[in-house]
Write a structure and sequence with these properties.
globular, Chorismate synthase, AroC fold, 29% helix, alpha+beta
Length: 339
């Protein structure tokens, strides 16, 4: 199996299966001398881990990282960084049936058709648990970005869960609230209704999809490569590499197709462009959205196993991690564009 890596200069390779001994990541291309912030790493892992609330999977994992290489005296060495997390709370017996009978909506059959021999337990490498590797790597990328350009900020949140949609004023207010204080990361006074909706879905073996958004502030001008590695194309690839994703858009997105050019192109810093023009960042606010389909585990499968009735709340820290990875890669790449 190839294609386990992401990035051009700041490059990561993830490894491990859901019910294996451990999952981990190797990070190459991180310069030496970056301050290692263990508290930041632990915080980001805690935001992603299972068992957070009544509307997430009940699997209990401490997700304690073990640093094997690349960091010494709380600074990066410039050598490959390897960090692992050991699995603790596997219940492999819950997945005995899918060894011979593929689950609807999952990739059990397609993985078996491709590889012949697979680890069916917990979905193996296709499990959402693989995303903890991305959060580890994204945390290192965040540390690097804070050194190279400390003004860059980003924030993710759920803008829609099932039929519940954030109002425009609530979206404008996201920088003034702690999104993590909301169980579903849906920053609204209506959040308790969303919680009750998902708790009922979890009990009934139902699931729902939604939309997560990320805003990026204070980006430098000119990140991205104009042809095959446009910032928007790399951003789309990064997001669509996550499980359960079904759509991606930035700026006005699909709404732009019905606009007149004289309305869409109002001025050089139009919000319609979403902070990216010609594939390069403009320095303006970047806002992108990712659609997630309803969680595949439903009915008896959901009731017997441990699954999220909606993946959006736990996907947000992973989206943020992938965004930091992309920014770090392009910040380093931009150094090569000029002498």
């Amino acid at each position: 199996m190839s294609a386990n890596s992401f990035g051009q200069i700041f490059k990561i390779t993830t490894f491990g299966e859901s019910h294996g001994a451990a999952l981990g990541v190797v990070i190459e291309g991180c310069p030496a001398g970056v301050d290692f912030n263990l508290d930041l790493l632990l915080k980001n892992l805690a935001r992603r881990k299972p068992g957070q609330s009544s509307v997430t999977t009940s699997r209990q994992e401490d997700d304690i990282p073990e640093i094997l290489s690349g960091i010494y005296e709380n600074k990066t060495l410039g050598t490959p960084i390897c960090i692992i997390v050991k699995n603790q709370d596997q219940k492999s017996a819950d997945y005995n049936q899918i060894k011979t009978e593929a689950r609807i909506g999952h990739a059990d059959d397609t993985w078996k058709a491709k590889f012949g021999h697979v680890d069916h337990r917990g979905g193996g490498r296709a499990s959402g648990r693989e995303t903890l590797c991305r959060v580890i790597a994204g945390s290192i990328a965040q540390m690097l970005c804070q050194k190279l350009n400390p003004n860059i900020q980003l924030k993710g949140y759920a803008s829609q869960i099932s039929d519940f949609v954030l109002h425009d004023e609530e979206i404008k207010n996201v920088w003034n609230v702690d999104v993590d204080q909301f169980k579903t990361r849906f920053p609204s006074e209506r959040e308790q209704r969303v919680v009750e909706w998902l708790e009922k879905a979890k009990a009934q073996g139902e699931s729902y999809g939604g939309v997560a958004e990320v805003q990026i502030k204070n980006m430098p001008i000119g990140l991205g490569q104009p042809i095959f590695h446009k910032f928007k194309s790399d951003l789309a690839m990064a997001m669509m590499s996550l499980g359960a994703t079904s759509a991606f858009e930035f700026g006005d997105g699909f709404a732009s197709v019905i606009q007149k050019g004289t309305d869409f192109h109002t001025h050089m810093n139009s919000e319609s462009y979403g902070g990216i023009r010609g594939g390069l960042t403009t320095g303006d606010l970047i806002l992108f959205r990712v659609g997630f389909k309803p969680t595949s585990s439903i009915k008896d499968t959901a009731k017997k196993g441990r699954h999220d009735p909606c993946i959006v709340p736990r996907a947000i820290p992973v989206m943020e991690a992938m965004t930091w990875l992309l920014i770090a890669d392009h910040l380093l790449w931009s150094r090569l564009d000029k002498i």
